Amino acid sequence: MKIQDAPIEPSLWHATAAAAPESFELEGRENTDVCVVGGGYTGLSSALHLAERGVNVVLLEAKEIGNGGSGRNAGHCTPTFHFYEIPTIRKMLGEPFASRLIQRQTDAANLVFDLIRRYDIDCEGVQTGYVQSAHAPALLPKMEQRCGYYQSVGKATRMLDRDEVTRLTGSPRYYGGWFHPEGGHLNPLGYSRGLARAAMSLGARVFTQSPVTAIAAEGGRWCVETAKGAVIADRVICGTGAYTDGFWPGLEGSFRRLGVAVMATQPIGDNLRKIIAPDNNTVVDSRGDAMIYKYNKEGRLVTSAFVEGRRGGDVAYTKALMARKLQWLLPDLPEVDWQYYWLGALDMQPKTIPRLFDLAPGIVASLGYSGRGVPTGTMMGTVLAEWALGARPEDLALPLEPLRSAPFYMNFAPRLFLAWYRFNDWRQARAGGATPPPF
FAD dependent oxidoreductase domain location, by residue (predicted)? Predict the structure, then answer.
């Protein structure tokens, strides 16, 4: 079974999310201004922001709302760039696109939690902040620089000393870090379902179990075909991420998939929660092969790991490895019982920032987020809505570019990077006199 086809039912989110709004398979022909392909954050946010403007919109989802990465991730909402620092983004994109994207991405968590409040979305959403902790002393100057980059664009980030990080994380393994107050976390499947409900309340028509098979020109418009029907639209938005599956030639080849295993512990008792992440922050450490954790509403610790070889594919091995790592990180944690375990996939590409592919006149695709899906997908919905409303390409937050295939090295680079990251994490820890985590 492909990672992107793994069932979502065993996930914690599927067990605890508010029910999805009622939807049906597309049968027959629908006429609309804009057809959105994909029922994840990108597609749902696009549909919602178009519906807010009174645009007639139809959304097609191949399976159920949030079936892809939008319902399978760990639920972090971190309004930062995943791989590159802000000055590098400026060099990569140039002006005015760099400043526009930086503003949108760094404000993206505020957008998420504004939508949650405005539409009363039941998704465990809390904007309690994000802690990135240094696993070795040598990382602190780089973190101070990063903290300053986000301060320079108006964010109230601040550095943390070792005592503060120990208190906020519950771990004695860190040497300091930085704090971003606009970060948060949520139930990602519940958030997906809430976006769908909000869009439908404003008139968007949402069809599930309706995979798109082809998109073809028809009478100066576009015909988006499914097994039992079709949508005739002036414009088409494609936001299918890692779950893209052959409906447009070459689109699936613009990225490479990287699997993620996500797991959740038993509920942690109140006394222990006063020690481990007592302020309910999202905690991420500075390792390339990072340890990440946060609570759900039941007090379960949720973490994740990239799939590589036995890690991810061998469930018993992965659970044992991640239990050792979490208990090493959090010595006060007496035991780890992984009661939920599920798989998802990321759409990785070299730039790691969103791409806007101009597929044909009136058809655009946005994908390749390479992580940070909750804020980035929601934010990109605003950009795609502006495109569909007729914004000039030079006025968008990202440049429109021709469809490009991911370079050959992306077939193996992400997994090679994981091996390098683990070695480098170990080297940095030992050089700083720290004990590396178990592998």
Answer: 33-387
